[in-house]
Amino acid sequence: NIICSIIFGDRFDYEDKNFLTLIDLIEENNKLQTSIQAQLYNFFPNVMDYLPGPHQRLIKNVEKVDKFTTNIVMEHQKTLDPTCPRDFIDAFLNKMEQEKGNEDSKFTIETLSRTTLDLFLAGTGTTSITLRFAVLILHKYPEIVG
Q1: What is the domain partition of the chain in residue ranges?
Q2: Which of 9, 31, 55, 119 is deepest in the core (most CB within 10 A)?
Q3: Dist CA 47 CA 38 (whole Å)
Q4: What domain of life (predicted)?
Q5: Which residues contact 97 (CB under 8 A, 6 or more apart)?
Q6: Nearest-angstrom CA–CA distance, 34 and 144
Q7: pLDDT tens, 57-101?
Q8: Separation CA 65–CA 45 (nearest Å)
Q9: What is the largest CA-CA distance in the chain?
Q10: 115 burial type by CB count under 10 A (0-12 exposed, 13-18 middle, 19+ buried)
Q11: Is the predicted pLDDT of residue 47 greater than 70, yes or no?
Q12: Element (H, E) at 40
């Protein structure tokens, strides 16, 4: 939720079905990434696109998470106040507006969607795994809590 407030400018209720679905998709993808098919997909994406396996589920999950972030970006576009950025997305949209005439600009909606997705996935996955291992270590070695 801290990552969400930085990127999306809003926290989600812990009972929010969309948020819980998103967390479930990320958890499932963390497990699917270790499959041999997912690893082969990184090397042979054109071939693996036609083969069944857990990598297909991983791709569908990423598409769902991407749709979620794209919807938030589109909502931000509708409610943007350039004088008062709420979060990362608003700051990026403001920069896009500044770069409007520049054909070489990397500040595009596609880049914003991808960057938002990357920040969300990397921040959420890394943070939750780090916290999980910290709790396990503290549980195994209670004397270091002292």
Answers
A1: 1-144
A2: 55
A3: 12
A4: Eukaryota
A5: 82
A6: 32
A7: 999 998 998 888 888 899 999 999 999 999 999 999 999 999 988
A8: 20
A9: 61
A10: middle
A11: yes
A12: helix 36-43
